[in-house]
Queue: 3 jobs
Job 1
Amino acid sequence: MAFFITGVSGFIGFHLATALLARGEEVIGIDIHTSSPFLSKERLNLLKQHRGFMYQAIDVCDQSALKALFAQYAHIHSIIHLAAQAGVRRSREEPALFARSNFEGLVSLLEASLTLKQINHIVYASSSAVYGRTKEFPFKETNPLGEPSSFYAVTKHSNELTAAYYKRAYNLPLTALRFFTVYGAWGRPDMAYFKFAKAISDKKPITLWEGQNLSRDFTFISDVVAGVLSLLDRKTRSFVPDAVNIGSGKPESVLKLIKELEKNLNMKADIEICPRPLEDLEQTWASIELIKKLTGWSPKTSINEGIAAFSKWFRVYKKLENQKN
Ligand SMILES: NC(=O)c1ccc[n+]([C@@H]2O[C@H](COP(=O)([O-])OP(=O)(O)OC[C@H]3O[C@@H](n4cnc5c(N)ncnc54)[C@H](O)[C@@H]3O)[C@@H](O)[C@H]2O)c1
């Protein structure tokens, strides 16, 4: 039995694959290095050192390539679909690219997955962004989804509608993973915590959005990995949830995140306050009662511990980057 991961050399895909390989599983992964190619290739090099890992450079929108891969690896029993264009502000600049990777990518994957005979569970990345402009806190899976604040949110919302159709039409065991601001080592350079760390260490100003409640449900990567695995490891298919929040359940102010980075990098931030762009929500806050009830999982890492671990890795990454340039 094998696990199939799309977006395997991305931030979350890399950590999930590493955890699965460490426990002796077979992992088949695809990616085409569309985001942060330097980090993406470094992550892939690490994955390739594991026996049990197989990689192909396949675009998830290429349905015939996926079908050929699934014919070769018919023993795939779990699919983790993470390949996508991520980032709320960039989705305004490149909506067609986001629509293709995020919307067409899921349809292509689901069509190809119909050829697999032993599928236990298909989980795919959704996002806290689907809750949109809402005043209902914390965000519960049963809440009606709010007005999308970005085109990125539109693509993730439409993924959930697509999945609802495939679940009904073909009885596919599909679950949306609604991730909340995932951070950690090998993370994404376009995300705020990473940009802040880079600006602080380069002695450049950092931009903080206006807003008294500017906060995020920051979730440390190892907690996210444990949460996803807890869902995949459930033996019973009697109830396959449509959507599950994977968050810390404890929003922290963005200012606190900056303070933790300052402490760990031992440098002061130069903060510029600017109006919040239309795409960014003021606050995110996950209810994690559903996943706790289903699997017993709960997050273990505080923001202090998580940022300390990220900062330790960030120092090494900076050296690697400097050597490259
Ligand atoms: N990191 C977060 O905080 C967060 C929060 C909410 C949702 N998500 C979602 O989780 C998933 C993984 O996020 P991440 O942070 O690891 O992002 P990431 O950008 O690091 O990883 C995504 C990977 O998908 C690959 N990819 C993109 N288009 C592809 C295509 N057409 N074919 C094959 N590969 C393709 C990219 O090259 C990249 O390696 C994404 O779907 C993202 O939208 C992430």
Note: Residues 185 and 310 are 5 Å apart (CA to CA).
Job 2
Amino acid sequence: MLTSQVLIAGGGPTGLMLAGELRLAGVDVLVLERRPEAMQESRAGGIHARTMEIFDQRGFLDAMLPEVRRLNVAHFSGLWLDVSGLPTRHPYLAAILQHRIERHLGEWARGLGVRVLRDTEVVGLREDGTGVEVELRGAATAARGAYLVGCDGGRSTVRKLAGFAFPGTPAKLTSLLADVELSEPPAPMFQVRREHGSFSVLDFEPGWYRVMTSEFDRVVDRDAEVGLEDVRAAMLRIAGTDFGMHSPRWVSRFSDAARQASEYRRGRVLLAGDAAHIHFPAGGQGLNTGVQDAVNLGWKLAAVLGGAPEDLLDTYHAERHPVGERVLRNTRAQTILGAPGEHMTDLRETMADLIGIGEANARLAGMITALDVRYDVGGDGHPLLGLRVPDVDVKAGEGTRVHELLRRGRPVLLDLGAGAGLREAASGWADRVDVVTAECADEPWRLPPSGEVAAPRAVLIRPDAHVAWVADGERVDGDGLRAALTRWFGPAS
Ligand SMILES: Cc1cc2nc3c(=O)[nH]c(=O)nc-3n(C[C@H](O)[C@H](O)[C@H](O)COP(=O)(O)OP(=O)(O)OC[C@H]3O[C@@H](n4cnc5c(N)ncnc54)[C@H](O)[C@@H]3O)c2cc1C
């Protein structure tokens, strides 16, 4: 029997991110992955600013950047959003294929000591008072861990075996995807709406194109075979041409079924990524959301394994379920907005007009990039509370930017001139929280999606970069700081 503190089912982007986060915190982790080889096909073609920031916070973004094509727009149902003014160091959509992202995540995770067991499928599970035992098919037969996290994708076996409810709305359309060569390639086209549906022709990488179709008048059995001829027929119905497609590398089907686990944790079993939420890939949010689930969960699970109160794990559901719910809502809205018909054309024109207003553009761009995600961390209502800390320039021993201070995945109490009372109040957490004294010349701090706030005198930053406490007055509220430290990092030692 294989053993590990945490078992992760699925070595996709969510599983790999979570595994790296846990290893960073010193947790022993084993990833069980059904595929014998790394996936070469790529569903996702891009990631947004918040995910870029996360990769930067953990120090592997620089290795990825040469493979990234920067686009200064994102979209809402094919209506362009200007992201170039967002308050982030990455005000662009990073076009990079999923298999490349997974390679970088895998290298980072393995570099931290993550074990990935391939050709290993989770087929059964049993939970008892101290752990979870999984039955495996493939390279091993069984494994046991104190916790099991299902990162095993939209059809998650873990979700089904552990009895999670997965309510939502069924598919109302059929979308097809083919990565092909084209003998008559057009200029790239994105979400072109016609009488019978919509299509896109995208040139992700030299030598081949991605052709995608959506037909709103048919729902195909999700297990039915799909081939190049299905995509060709759909293109002929919608666009009247197939642009001479041939030599397929990958053909796939997806839909707008939108479902979400009603709880993200049942005892010692948790869900993250597509295993917890599925939706139409409108706006390119799924992989991003999964990575962000993982970064929210990793440090909490590590803390609980290290002795923190177990209810910390419940904040994973409390914080991430509403984020997933919002993604489902906005993708449903985007899907219907992409439907054919004159009425929808009129509605799209109205929406496009509204998006022309800076504040409306910023609101949607903040949502699609997830830069505006704010968790309820309590406190006095300071505008920074619950948001991810901005990556402002600082002069500190260990770094020149705030996000660089998060490389070790540990909480940081950033002292920007709060004085001696701060260290004293936090002294009981010195083993778990890094106190960093720094100078900050950036003034004011810009907040997503738009807005600003005076630079604070101190901030308590969780390992996932979200702000848990702020001091901006003359005096440090020691009781408030101790309450925040206790809530997130356990009692003083
Ligand atoms: C056409 C399309 C375009 C998309 N574009 C974007 C985009 O631009 N941006 C974006 O953010 N998202 C996009 N997405 C969504 C994105 O691809 C997914 O959200 C993302 O892959 C989810 O990652 P995951 O790790 O949660 O799940 P997955 O990537 O599905 O990984 C799950 C892993 O678990 C393994 N597994 C499954 N069952 C078992 C088992 N029983 N035992 C062991 N292993 C198992 C699988 O082999 C797989 O490796 C797109 C999706 C589609 C369909």
Note: The mean pLDDT is 96.
Job 3
Amino acid sequence: MHRDHDIAIVGGGAAGTLAAIHLLRRAAPGLRIAMYEPSLHPGEGVAYSTRRPEHLLNVPAGKMSALPDEPGDFLAWLATRREYAGAGDQSSRYLPRRDYAAYLAQRLEEARTGSAATFELHHHRITALHRRADGLRLEWSGGSATAGRVLLATGNAPRPLPARGASALGAPRLLEAWDSEGLAAIAPDARVCIAGTGLSMVDAVLTLAACGHRGPVHLLSRHGLLPLAHAPDSPVDTGLEVDALLALDLRARLRVLRQRVAEAAAGGRPWQAVLERLRPRVQALWRSLDAADQRRFLRHVVRYWDIHRHRIAPEADAVLQDLVRSGRLQLHRARLDLVTSGTRCVHIGARDRHGAVVALDVEHVINATGVEMRVQAMRNPLLEQLLGDGLAVPGAHGIGLATDMDGRMRDASDMARDDLRVVGSLRIGEAWESLAVPELRQQAQAVAEAWTGVAVAA
Ligand SMILES: Cc1cc2nc3c(=O)[nH]c(=O)nc-3n(C[C@H](O)[C@H](O)[C@H](O)COP(=O)(O)OP(=O)(O)OC[C@H]3O[C@@H](n4cnc5c(N)ncnc54)[C@H](O)[C@@H]3O)c2cc1C
């Protein structure tokens, strides 16, 4: 039976690229691996495609290795780079994200040249996937191919601005937070409103600051919470018994954690140590909540969780805090409702939690509302087709896709087959913590081991 590929990876961001590296390092002679990624640069995806030096990793370099079994691999790569020569130990530093893209691209190239397998990179956006007698058939505009196994790594989907009138606004009035060139072109005195106050907002603020912007910047979000900073040296509260938490319900867990954080504060220790202790066990913590508690978490806790869990580099925090102190950044706790284009500006209408109108006139609105978790709202034709044909179903609580614990995709009859697996953020419903490199590399290694039968890379 002819198949074009033994394994096809759909999506070549960090997750797909990590999977390719792990597969190539283990593959037996003759295995044919392909990756489908529309952009020209594998490994970049949404997070690492930025060329701007002020966009930093939010994880210290020492924790960003592509290889779970070689935790120092990113540091070893940095040591070979001229720009880091003589710069000392980088393990606790928050480096530019563009360096991480260069690292992944080089490790992919090395894995390809050193592999017994063949590797093809196709710059097509896959629009459909069908199960046929001869394997899994991938389709794109103008072509198709068959594969024995498919790994779905389509990753993050930016959210459209959630406001009436947004679809009638275009650049440069409405800019996406990841459009660095658009942001860099904003006039220095222009009034700006950034919708959303998460990590994409931080990127946008850092770019405006780096480009000499000095006009007022309004930050708009429903909860008005800003990301918090990492503590120096990432301490870990080793005294916290995570196993004991697993047996508790959500409310009791939160009580224990609040108490622990208060004790740390009273003892002059950083609260971040408590979160660092939880970090490797977040998947177990999520899976051990019942469905009702998971729902409560998503409804009432997630905003607070996000700012504590997804922390920013201390140097990024310093810039942010300076701008808040100087009054240049003004935080509005309000829900965005309406955007309309005037002759010279954009009118923004929002409502605070008491129903009072917050009205702003600005030259630019920046959409920093982050990534979409609900698979039906991701506007990805491939995912829509998979759902429509019953090859996939939404994950728990409608977020991501339903998978088993090893990432096998569940179909409409709840069957999880081994030839169609998922890595990365689409596993959020089942795993919750399934976004950052520590999880992505683990998932990539696990699928490579399962599909090549080789547990230790050659
Ligand atoms: C701004 C930002 C900063 C971050 N910083 C860090 C950090 O410092 N450390 C960390 O550990 N994590 C960080 N993260 C988490 C980050 O999401 C992951 O590290 C990683 O980038 C996720 O990669 P991914 O491949 O799953 O998704 P993506 O980066 O979204 O890549 C998915 C790829 O799939 C492709 N694709 C989509 N649909 C199709 C299709 N139908 N056919 C073919 N290709 C398709 C896209 O073109 C894209 O290249 C950050 C995330 C963001 C958004």
Note: The pocket of flavin-adenine dinucleotide is lined by residues 10-16, 36-39, 45-48, 57-59, 125-126, 153-156, 199-200, 203, 380, 382, 424-425, 435-437 (CB under 6 Å).
